[in-house]
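User: DUF5818 domain-containing protein. Structure?
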Amino acid sequence: MIFPFIVTGMLRWSRERDFFVEADDGGQWALDLPSALTERTDRLLHQRVAVEGGRTGLSTVSVDRIEER
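Assistant: Predicted structure:
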């Protein structure tokens, strides 16, 4: 059974990193975001979010779902 990877924290954006999450535990996670979620993610900028997906790198998440928390 494969369990989803979930990161909770503040959604941020920068020119260097694009969208990322400042996680509650202090880490930062880059988001590999499908184009279908870009508009929704724009609306959630600077909100506390939960991101669900698969971990694809040391600090990167391939996003399946993003929700306000």
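The chain has a mean pLDDT of 94. Helices lie at 38-43.
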